[in-house]
Structure prediction request, 452 residues.
Amino acid sequence: MTKHLLRDLENLKKRILTVGAMVEEAIAKSTSALLDRRVDLSKQVLLGEGLIDATEVLVEEECLKVLALHQPVAADLRFIVMVLKANSDLERMGDLAENIAERAGYLCENEPLRALPEQKRMVEQVRAMVRETLDAVVDLDVDKARKVLQSDIEVDRLNREVFAVLQDLMVRDSGTVARALHTLSASRNLERIADHATNVAEDVIFLCEGQIIRHRGRKLGPVTKR
Amino acid sequence: MTKHLLRDLENLKKRILTVGAMVEEAIAKSTSALLDRRVDLSKQVLLGEGLIDATEVLVEEECLKVLALHQPVAADLRFIVMVLKANSDLERMGDLAENIAERAGYLCENEPLRALPEQKRMVEQVRAMVRETLDAVVDLDVDKARKVLQSDIEVDRLNREVFAVLQDLMVRDSGTVARALHTLSASRNLERIADHATNVAEDVIFLCEGQIIRHRGRKLGPVTKR
Prediction:
């Protein structure tokens, strides 16, 4: 590998971690807005939305430049394709954090629903998963990436619990329908964040082991599967 | 461009269109299952789920091979990156069609809700959008791709209408909650299919014009924005 390619690949890694840190912050703020009724944090997330998008575009351009300039092969090529895909997943995680912030904004303006310990656990799990995913990317660590895949199963389970509780609430008290739907939407967005983290973890494993492990029966959106 | 690269790029285009045709069929069947209560079509979609996934993996491997073998630059490089990204979007559209098929399966087993002409229009619009997106990919046609972006706005609007109707139904009659949630989920999945089609269309425009037009204020999941 030439010195220039090495430097450019290190730069790509830094860039993708910058996007990752921004997304992590958006998730932390939007979920705090949701759990602690912090409308100020919700607003912060919505104000910062353009920055993640702009950074994603820059990273993609950077990847194309490195591909065109160095025409890397084998592991280097796979690394760049991993960055390209992770970049796209991270940007969508940022979009989902915004959606949670919007739902939280609505919920802050209305009477609180009953406490949802399942959703709190889901938030903790998803935050830890995103952290682990970014660590797996930095260290190209297959063990961490596999832990992410395990966590996703737990997130799906918690999401089904939240769904059941909220459906029950709506049936028993029609006055809760609007708020329950917003809470449900926040939960679903959390679950989708976990799905995107899983995509990134799968791509890290592919990069390290040359094995495509997608599609082991995992499906999207099991929330409404009953 | 060498003769071999030309042949490999043509092959990639054929492959991505094969994935596209499979996804289109899954969407057609799952939405017919939903609108016409055709449980047989729902089952067909769920039985065929592995095939789209397997084909997506093949196309990705093919892209990596062509990149490594020919080390293409400029437009050829961008074309392959477009195929890589479209491949991933199409596979997710297939997952979403499966989710719709599952929702339809549940709804077929239960008493029908009131008619939802808004959802029927949404289905028509999304099907046309997916067709147009695939045409834009085959012909690298920017005008068709721009039409897809326009249609997405209309799909979002219809989705909000469906949401309002169903929320109202749940508030007025708690006996409808479970079925309304499944119907809502189908609608949201349709809207997400339209979002992925939009991603592909944006990548076609980027390929043709070298201009990244993502993030013009479009957001995910406006369904619960009220």
About this structure: The radius of gyration of chain B is 19 Å. The mean pLDDT of chain B is 90. Chain B touches chain A through 48 residues (CB under 8 Å).
